[in-house]
Amino acid sequence: MTDTDIATTKTQLDVEHIKQDFPLLSKGFHGESIAYLDSAASSQRPTCVIDAMSGYYNYSHANVHRGVYKLAEEADRLYENARITTGKFVGAPDPAREIVFTKNATEAINLIAYSWGMHRLSEGDVVVVTEIEHHANLVPWIMLHKERGIELRVIPMRDDYLLDLDNLEEIVDGAKLVACTLMSNVLGTIPPFKKIADAAHSAGAIVVADGAQLVPHAHVDVKELDCDFLAFSGHKMLGPTGIGVLWGKAELLDSIPPFIGGGGMILDVKFEGIVPAEIPTRFEAGTPPIAEAVGLTAAIEYLDNIGMNNIFHHDAELTAYTIDSLKNTFGRDITIMGPDTTENRGGVISLALKDIHPHDLAQVLDESNVCIRAGHHCAKPLMRRLGTSATARASFYLYNDTSDADRLIEALSKAASIFG
Amino acid sequence: MSSSGLEDLYREIILDHYRNPRNRGSMEVPPSQRVEAYNPLCGDEVIVYLLEKNGVLEDVRIEGQGCSISQSSASLMSAAVKGKTIEETRQIISDFKKLMSIHESKLEDGTDDAQMDIDMDAMGELAALQGVVRFPVRIKCAILAWNALAQGLDEISGSSPDEPRQVEK
């Protein structure tokens, strides 16, 4: 995402209309209207995604890659079409070869850690992460530290919840790989990824982007980011669970061995050894998530139709509105753990109200059918940095509007009175 | 989707024990036993110190941090078992766990058999935690301190001296 993209056309989202595409949001949970503010954990999905998947299962299902009959060809076509659609969505230069479908973003990052990391890294090699990463982009590297003896360096966070890049060049000096989120799932912080990628490349490192949070909410282009790998998940971007995406530069993917072994990922098998398949099927052992790929295609078409820049602006406006309301309503009683601007942050608000424990907050909010998440958000090192064990987090998407934010504030007031 | 559930969960006794926890603090180890219990998912933490003499829990202290349910339950527990014998304490633990396993639907009808042979009068203030069963996710919060207590008793009795002292619920 670049500044020029942000500056281009903005169309206000018609949220009332959008909600109609999501039965849970238009008809309610057991008949009660809910404010769903947990899309950073998992989004809801529009009916068109479910229809696409059930249409596939009802009329087009066969296994891919092996059949000669028309039905199997149709399944093949749908699955490979999903690859093209997904690749184009993130600006992949060669979508047919560069998109690997995985189980989720976590598996996509693990694929890099194993197929690239286990073969390219040895004792003493340096991998750089940041202090604001989700466990998905931390644990695989910490495991490599244990198993391969690599050195793990950390780009720290400043007190204003942005990354401290003062010593960036020193930190990435001599690194083989730099892994950074495009947006924090706790703070909403959007790091200056291109700057980090440039420094990493100058140092000779490859760059991994964890796009699980930003890809669903903004225009993301792998060429503009200048990353070497990008990982993201289907279920956070209106698609189904059970599918994740790894984009990698073709020459990089082509240079690394398989991750998981099995059917579909080989050219030949003898008892003495295997000949792996070409990319991307080399990385897709076993029957892939075909229906999920069909659903993801429908989700991407839905998002494209609304426009990623419009979604990003919608999130930003709603976030600004909510932060203002929180401060006006609760004053010094509210702490917002995230950047104070909307330029470098997305629609995720981690907050603390007085000293009410996040789980108590979430419990009281649930009574008003306001769904937020409370916990460490799979970012324990960041929690330690914040000096807490958990936060309460509200996160927005294209189907949220100011009425959801108002319900959040009202329910927080109720919690404040119970624990006052 | 109950409307009265929240008042049931956050009863005044519970909020009182949360705001003014009883028996807060630590004790020297030994002579006391120290057991930690964590909820790795939400970060609740309870540390229980037990001082036993001649089969009686002479003193109980609680440290830790977490949500109102985990911390108030620890406080209520300390008040309930302090001065009790090991056997009496085991009975209270057993009754409390029964209380936490009563199905929500049985709570509604309030019949005697719904209480599953628990002497509710003997439960005293602990009965205030009954409302937690309406919120299954929070039962783990309520039971955290009790798991630590149970392990502490086992260690005092020497029935599992080699077991690690950390409990995860």
What does this protein look like?
The complex is a heterodimer of chains A (420) and B (169). Helices cover 42% and strands 16% of the residues of chain A. Chain A has 17 helices and 15 strands. Chain A has helices at 3-7, 15-19, 23-27, 47-59, 70-89, 95-98, 105-120, 139-148, 168-172, 193-202, 222-225, 250-254, 290-306, 308-330, 358-367, 380-386, 402-418, and strands spanning 35-36, 99-102, 126-130, 151-155, 175-181, 206-210, 229-233, 244-248, 266-270, 273-276, 334-336, 348-353, 370-371, 373-375, 391-395. In chain A, strands 2-8-7-6-5-3-4 form a seven-stranded mixed beta sheet, with helices on both faces. In chain A, strands 11-12-15-14 form a four-stranded antiparallel beta sheet, covered by helices on one side. A four-stranded mixed beta sheet of chain B has the order 3-2-1-4, covered by helices on one side. In chain B, a hairpin with a 2-residue loop joins β2 and β3 (56-65). In chain B, α2 (12-19) packs across α3 (68-81), α3 packs parallel to α7 (136-157) and α4 packs antiparallel against α7. The longest helix of chain B has 22 residues, at 136-157.
Top keywords for this entry?
heterodimer; A: 420 residues; alpha/beta; Aspartate Aminotransferase, domain 2; 2 domains; 7-stranded mixed β-sheet; B: 169 residues; alpha+beta; Sufe protein. Chain: A; 7 helices; 44% helix; 17% strand; globular
Compute the average pLDDT of chain B.
Answer: 83
Q: Name the beta content range of chain B.
A: 15-25%
* Sheet with the most strands, sense and barrel status of chain A: 7 strands, mixed
Oligomer: heterodimer
Which spans of chain B have pLDDT < 50 for at least 5 consecutive residues?
160-165
Radius of gyration over C-alpha positions of chain A, nearest whole angstrom: 22 Å
What's the shape of chain A? globular
Q: How many strands appear in the DSSP assignment of chain A?
A: 15
User: Please, how many domains of chain A?
Assistant: 2
Question: Separation of termini of chain A?
Answer: 43 Å
- What is the domain tally of chain B? 1
Care to count the β-strands of chain B?
A: 4
Q: Which stretches of chain A of 5+ consecutive residues score pLDDT under 50? A: 1-7
